[in-house]
Specification:
The chain is α+β, with helices and mostly antiparallel strands. It has two helices and four strands, in the order E-H-H-E-E-E. The chain has a four-stranded mixed sheet.
Length: 100
């Protein structure tokens, strides 16, 4: 059975911030929209295969249910629960890593 993908308010706000940053850098709505859409849609695989990516090494006290991957230089962290996958963080991967 597929899991439900839910974006937390924080992750949604971070994706919106990424959109604004990319738009400022690229000055192209088309390019920015394509990149953000690809990041957003990349989470769909987690519904059927949530353990496809490695454990999130930046998460302190990770109990094995928080994983992360990169797409277009953005690091997406997510929490796996019984019937749901929560997207919890979207961070530009080139920035200095921050534990959380």
């Amino acid at each position: 059975m597929d899991k439900t993908i839910i974006w937390t308010h924080q992750a949604d706000a971070e994706l919106h911030e990424a959109f604004l940053d990319l738009l400022e850098q690229s000055e192209s709505v088309e390019i920015t929209t394509r990149i953000i859409t690809e990041i957003y849609e990349s989470t769909s695989i987690l519904a059927t295969n949530p353990e496809i990516y490695k454990l999130d090494t930046l998460k302190q006290n990770n109990k094995g249910n928080i994983r992360a991957y990169e797409k277009h230089s953005y690091r997406i962290s997510y929490l796996i629960e019984k019937e749901t996958v929560f997207i919890i963080r979207v961070r530009y991967a080139i920035k200095e890593p921050l534990e959380y």
